[in-house]
Amino acid sequence: MEITRVGVAGCGLMGSGIAEVAARAGCDVVVREIDSEALAAGRGRVEKSLERAVSRGKLDPAARDETLSRMTFTTSLDDLADRDLVIEAIVESLDAKNELFGYLDAVCPEETIFASNTSSLTVTDMAAATSRPDRFVGLHFFNPVPVMKLVEVVRTIVTSRETFDAARAFARRVGKVPVAARDNSGFVVNLLLVPYMLDAIRQFERGVATVEDIDTAMTLGCGYPMGPFTLCDFVGLDTLCQVAEIMYGEYREERYAPPPLLRRLVTMGRYGRKTGAGFYDWTPEGPVALKV
Ligand code: CAA
Ligand code: NAD
């Protein structure tokens, strides 16, 4: 089955990137957000990312215009009813995701494939609540979506071979390299990456070094493109905290438990880059690290 009509639910950090790469690959894309304010912000993210590609000579202005002409921005869930594939990239909450898929299950034809971009929930927990568990996969993209080449394609014990193959072909079509992952919380990358990020926070809590020095140590000492605190702010501390809660709930292993400081930052509304402050204050003059 070839996928040409794509729906994306959520146009935050991830949904905007997923919608962009699908439209750049020639798909007809409908993106849904909860209200007009969030929709305008999401559209702005797509436009900014396309502008960046134009200014770097990676995309010509005509291709940018064509990409945008293939995208429809909406607040109506019913506008996703004629899609071949709907990819969910909303908040990391099983209740929110199940409510969304419950509605879509009723309005989309039975051929429509459902996919979740979840970081830490199991696809099974969402698929089992619909009437199409065989046509349900995980398509886990990485942030920033236009740049990161990987997609984890996640198969549950009942995902059909046709659905898995169509999802993997879609990942290739949008220019990504798919890896097959089993449906365990955290798939492959987050099983390894999330404990690393949480550990960095714990070491900072213990007073091992400052936020800047831990970041400098890991970038210059290991050649990582970002230090762990810059990465936490980039991912979003609200999302990271949810992911940690879910993985800790699944495995009951201390390495997945959200450190107290992470919870405090989230309570204070310091979600990272997206709110202007997290482990750093993201000021126009440059990042200023948290001191505690
Ligand atoms: N959107 C679109 N394009 C972007 C971008 C963005 N937000 N940020 C950077 N880019 C592009 C730039 O345009 C540039 O493209 P070209 O090479 O084609 O010119 C390229 O990326 C490099 O950008 P810069 O030179 O400005 O910056 P950089 O060299 O510092 O790279 C980075 C930026 C790619 C984000 C790099 O720092 C990096 O790889 N960081 C680590 C990201 C990472 O680990 N992501 C995974 C997060 S975990 C996750 O996603 C899973 C989960 O479930 C939580
Ligand atoms: P985000 O907070 O940037 O965006 C989530 C968006 O979903 C918000 O704009 C919100 O308004 C919208 N939303 C909420 N309910 C909705 C609904 N019912 N319909 C449509 N839109 C709705 O979050 P994000 O970082 O883009 O994460 C989205 C998903 O992708 C999460 O499941 C997260 O775990 C996963 N993910 C995140 C990253 C990352 O680095 N941030 C990487 C890979 C996967």
Which molecules other than protein and nucleic acid are bound? acetoacetyl-coenzyme A, nicotinamide-adenine-dinucleotide
Report the radius of gyration as a whole number of Å.
Answer: 19 Å
Indicate the multimeric state: single chain
CATH architecture classification name of the largest domain: 3-Layer(aba) Sandwich
Question: Can you list the strand order of the major beta sheet?
Answer: 3-2-1-4-5-6-7-8
Morphology: globular
> What's the CATH topology label of the largest domain?
Rossmann fold
> What is the number of beta strands?
10
CA(first)-CA(last) distance: 54 Å
Return the average pLDDT rounded to an integer: 98
CATH class of the largest domain: Alpha Beta
* Main sheet characteristics: 8 strands, mixed
SS-based structural class?
Answer: alpha/beta
Number of domains: 2
What is the chain-wise order of helices and strands? EHEHHEEHEHEEHEHHHHHEE
Q: What is the helix fraction of residues, given as a range?
A: 40-55%
CATH homologous superfamily of the largest domain, by name? NAD(P)-binding Rossmann-like Domain
Strand content: 15-25%
**Residue ranges: pLDDT <50 for 5 or more in a row?**
none
Count every helix, treating DSSP H or I runs of 4 or more residues as helices: 11
Description:
With 292 residues, this protein is α/β, with parallel strands linked by helices. It folds into two domains: 5-182, 3-Layer(aba) Sandwich (Rossmann fold), CATH 3.40.50; 190-279, N-(1-d-carboxylethyl)-l-norvaline Dehydrogenase, domain 2 (Orthogonal Bundle). It has helices spanning 13-24, 36-55, 61-69, 94-107, 123-127, 161-173, 189-205, 211-222, 228-235, 237-251, 260-267; strands spanning 5-9, 28-32, 71-74, 85-88, 113-116, 136-141, 150-155, 177-182, 280-283, 286-289. The strands form two sheets. Strands 3-2-1-4-5-6-7-8 form an eight-stranded mixed β-sheet, sandwiched between helices. Strand 4 (85-88), helix 4 (94-107) and strand 5 (113-116) form a beta-alpha-beta unit. Helix 1 packs across helix 2 (36-55) and helix 7 crosses helix 9. The protein is globular, with a radius of gyration of 19 Å. The termini are far apart.
